[in-house]
Amino acid sequence: MAKNLNVVGKPFRKVDARAKCVGQTKFADDIVLPRMLFCKLLRSHVPHALIKSIDASKALALPGVFAVITGKDLTIPYGILPVSQDEHALCIDKVRFVGDPVAAVAAIDEDTAFDAMNLIEVEYEPLNSITNIEEAVMIDEPRIHDYGDSGNVHKKVSLEFGNLDEGFAEADLVREDVFFYEGNTHLPMEQHAAVAHFDADQKLTLWSSTQTPHYVHRALAKVFELPAAHIRVIATPNGGGFGGKSDPFNHEVAVCKLSMITGRPVKITLTREEVFYCHRGRHPVLMKVKTGVKNDGAITAMHFQSFLDGGAYGSYGVASTFYTGALQTVTYNVPRYKFQGLRAFTNKPPCGPKRGHGTPQPRYALEVQLDKIAEQLRIDPVEIRRRHLVPPNTVTANYLRIGSMGLGACIDKVVEGSDWKNRFSGWDPTTRKLPYGKGIGIACSSYICGAGLPIYWNNMPQSAVQLRLDRQGGVCVMCGSTDIGQGSDSILAYIVAEILGIDPFDIRVVTADTDLTPVDLGSYSSRVTLMTGNAAIQAAERARELLVMAVAEKLGVPIENLSLAERRVFDVENPEVGVSFAEAVVLAESKFGTIGTVGSYTPPHSPGKFKGSGVGPSPAYSYSAAVAEVDVNPDTGIVVVERVWIAHDIGRSINPVLVMGQVEGSVYMALGEILMEEMTYRTNRNVVHKFPSLLEYKSPTTMEMCDVKTYLIEDPDPNGPYGAKEVGQGPLLPVPPAVANAVYNAVGVRIDEVPITPEKVMRALKDKGRGRNPRYGPTNVPAVEWPEPLRVLTPAEGGDGTEMPRVAVHS
Amino acid sequence: MMRLPKFEYHTPQTIAEAVKIMAAAGPAGQFVAGGTDLYPNMKRRQQMPKTVISVMRLAELNQITGDGASGLRIGASVTLTDICEHPIVNRDYPVIAKAARTISTPILRNMGTIGGNLLLDTRCNYYDQNYEWRRAINFCLKKDGDVCWVAPGSSKCWAVQSSDLVPVMVAIGAKFRLASTLGDRIIDAAGFYNDDGIDYLHKRPDELLVDIQLPPTNGWRASYQKLRRRGAFDFPVLGVAAFVSLDQGLVRNAKVVLGGIAPAPVEIKEAACVLIGGPLIDEQIAAAAEAAYVKARPLDNTDFVYQWRKQMARQYTLRALRELQT
Questions:
Q1: Cβ atoms within 10 A of the Cβ of A472, count?
Q2: Are A563 and A465 found together in one domain?
Q3: Which CATH number is A88's domain given?
Q4: Nearest residue on chain B to A276, judged by CA atoms?
Q5: How many domains would you assign to chain A?
Q6: Which residue out of A639, A698, A702 would a mutagenesis test of the B interface target, given it has the greatest number of B Cβ atoms within 10 Å?
Q7: Residues A203 and A316 occupy one common structural domain
Q8: Are residues A637 and A573 in the same domain?
Q9: What span, in angstroms and rounded, lies between the C-alpha atoms of B207 and B182?
Q10: A116 and A35: one domain?
């Protein structure tokens, strides 16, 4: 596209920035309606038990209490994935973790609701609890759920692409490593809140801080058996989401039911502790990686096993499990690949998608192992990566179609920026260039730009945009997308403004309202800019066409001569000949009637056709490379990340400032994961969360934030709007392994377990001092009987993306 | 959000009035200054006073008088921000300003007071949780339960002394003035704290902390080193206050006091013994740090692995004493 861009690529402010800065943005908790009641949830204080009885009579007798509901009032299950419809807003016969809700109260004010909640009497019959992956694999009874692959194993996956034996036989070196990545949570500043109103016309409206209003809409229609047309879900601006507001939640269902019973609006705002119980955050994952390489570092085969601690419900877990095995192949060439994944149920808050959904854990394992391989082969860690990049416009062994691929340029940028060549001294500790205690490390990564498939099977678009132009020159963009702070509302305005030649601040953006906006699936899987962007381009191009047809006729100029810019439609050969944008709309409306256009986007089909090929395909893949510089104090083990150089292949920046903000935010979140965050429980004390508070769940403050040097690599992808790819999640991925590799460079110890805390560093240093393996981390994985893998010939082997017929075994 | 229980709130203008209201309220009464400790505790139902008496309007409690030559008197309701910024505190008692600057965050220091910090409730990962969480572990010895989950065989509560200023006050020999309807008394900081997480102060509940009296600065030096996860917000999980006075290059008097590891500040007498009489050289310092390591016995009830916190007692004592060498 040779056309000069006026808006795209420019650092405009966000369309909602001023309201947020001055506190005018209305979050869900800011909504106050006449006669509104307040809701509190009574949550289980036992980790696993049968509910014998619930007596709410004292609560109902309390003045100011309008209704109390329990599980028997909401018997239809729901869940984000069609294969995991395992949640009830309120537990019916059994509770599965400390924090699982059992009753909901609606009262005149929050104090009364709180008092009423404490008057509800629940009798439990305790069951043994399952607290970690190993227990879940070993102990079948009691079962946390009565579905799943077996006992407390929720899901097992086994996929094999190509002949692994051949690949390992070809290798000059085969390494096996075991890693553990601890779970952590999103920690959005805004606690989840929701207001429901079931009005006199029998219509239900829910305002909620959700990232996925469309999926919440579907869940409510199912649970209440109401026509979807009678339900309206409005996603309020999210004060941070990061994946933690992507499921339909029990509190959303509960306030709807309470409003239906009382006929009044009902509101709930969760406490911070309750947000920890909603969780859906990063799965703790134990991983075993076996990789074969040639002497030049070329990978010949990889066998990856992952074990996910899923917590008490399915949530996105099946998708998360596949994601721990999907994207290993898209950075460096992996000609043969086998993945086995297992997700377990445990009596803890459910895990789900957090920034990078299922991929930071395997990326950590892969990138740290690659560093170890580089050392064994005496290859510079930059070189071992740079040499074996997946070429653009190819299909990987597991049938992911790669389009643009800017990782090489990313690596070059961070290597140059960090002065890698003068700071990394090879693998001989006696010739080091940095003083002992200072270290430098590199890692790379990739992430999807939108999932290729929707969560529920359908052939409809994944995103749609509706444009309305009015005769006074106003433009309204309507889209189901949800702004969770990433700037998706602004992206819509920028793109429409670019095409219609107007100012982005002239545009009114209406989003995330199931009554007013066409469906967009939601803010997850880094899909929004790519998918809504393409839909917006289509809608705006259609509107532009109507405008230029009308203006061409009026001015007597050929259509192709007309340009839209600076709020005018004019003849490029004779720029003073033209009309204002508003006049153009009047001309078009006079000619065609009211001007409204639509656009939509459906991702291309994936080349993979085997069962399980639904997770991993994407219209495009973003790439990142990071170099981290650390200071490790050998007397205390305390690791300080001093600087991160990070390059991100964005395809094209729609707004470079927003892109940089996402990169820096990703670095910040990654520092929390690698240095301190732990979603852990006291397994011998009723499986309580160790510290469900902002004070004691340690997440970095600004004091821990390092300097960040960001480079944007712009190599437009044919599938992206103006070539744009994602940035919300991908840049988190390379940072944890880059830090781990830098720690090794600094003091010579491998910490194969996230987070890298000072006591782990000290233990590894102590082992090093005693001549033992200078490493901290797990050494083995549970023995599991895996299902016979589904085998697929790779494209190189002549495969067509379908699975091979299983060899029949007769007894 | 979390809600406060209902209570009656008083704002007396004089000390006499304040202590009178407290005497009338009895055990249901509680003084409050900045409220940064008490109100979160009340929201978590750890403390539920029926009568809350603010000390923020007592003029006498909001003053700093004197200097390093005469000794400094700091009113109990002076905010931590004022302590951090006060020119005489910074000039004559820099260790106090430095320790105060490590407390929590600027915003909380704007509200929190020096008196509140010195009377800070002891902290524990089993106690500083809301009512529903504590119910899930069937409560603990300090509040509503009968087991100390940190040391289940123990009849004692092991909640941790978590003020940054307490070890410093003990190390430099500060005194506290208390008032009640029965009159005033002055007590040494060293004798004010009790090694019991529940009954952690040698103070009757009806006594009001009026002021803190710092000794004249005739040649002594002091330092404070704090261990915590992050550069802001966090309570100490180990604090080391060191104090020495030198006479012709030899240590005449010394004190090393550890905070954040036990229900009360722990004075390492062995460290003082090693230091007193000799020059303040690396060898002596290392021996003193070793003594601190031996005496430090943290338990698993704060952030970090407790065995590592014990190791850090050596490192942080080294740092605190090295700071006093020049």
A1: 8
A2: yes
A3: 3.90.1170.50
A4: B133
A5: 3
A6: A698
A7: no
A8: no
A9: 9
A10: yes
In a domain, A159, yes or no: no
pLDDT tens figures, A611-650: 999 999 999 999 999 999 999 999 999 999 999 999 999 9
Do A54 and A123 share a domain, yes or no? yes
Q: Write out the two tokens for B154.
A: 């123990």
pLDDT value at B93 more than 70: yes
Name beta bridge partners: A689: A681
Residues A325 and A378 in one domain: yes
Let me know if residue A172 belongs to a domain.
no
Cβ–Cβ below 8 Å for A698 and B2: no
Secondary structure of residue B79 in the 3-state scheme: strand
**Is A509 a domain residue?**
yes
In a domain, A155, yes or no: no
Q: A541 and A633, same structural domain? A: no
Supply the pLDDT for residue A322: 98
**Distances, alpha carbon A187 to alpha carbons A40, A640, A700, A728, B34, in Å:** 21, 22, 11, 16, 27
* CA–CA min distance A120, chain B (Å): 13
Cα-based angle A594, A598, A602 (whole degrees, multiple of 5) = 170
Last residue of a domain, one of A544, A571, A601: A601
The predicted-structure confidence for B122-155, as pLDDT tens digits, reads as follows: 999 999 999 999 999 999 999 999 999 999 999 9
Residues A300 and A445 in one domain: yes
Rounded Cα distance between A676 and A690, Å, is: 14
pLDDT band, very low/low/confident/very high, at A3 (cuts 50, 70, 90): low
Distance, CA of A507 to CA of A512 (rounded, Å): 16
Contact (Cβ atoms closer than 8 angstroms) between residue A536 and residue A496: yes
Predicted confidence (pLDDT) at residue A808 exceeds the cutoff of 60:
no
Q: Which residues of B touch A696 (CB under 8 A)?
A: 125, 128, 303
Chain B environment of A698 (Cβ under 8 Å): 229-230, 234, 303
Q: Is the pLDDT of residue A811 over 60?
A: no
Give me the residue from A688, A698, A762 closest to B230, CB to CB: A698
- Predicted pLDDT of residue A418: 98
Say how many residues make up chain B.
Answer: 326
Q: pLDDT (tens digit, 9 = 90+) per residue, A202-237?
A: 999 999 999 999 999 999 999 999 999 999 999 999
Domain that holds residue A312: 285-452+608-776
Q: Is A695 within 8 Å of B233 when comparing Cβ atoms? A: yes
Residues of A with a Cβ under 8 Å from any B Cβ are 43, 45-46, 98, 110-111, 114, 191, 269, 271, 273, 635-637, 676, 682, 685-686, 688-693, 695-696, 698, 700-704, 757-759, 762
**Is A703 close to B232, i.e. CB distance below 8 A?**
yes
Q: Are A593 and A550 in contact (CB under 8 A)?
A: no
Looking at CA atoms only, how far is residue A722 from chain B in angstroms? 42
CATH number at residue A763: 3.30.365.10
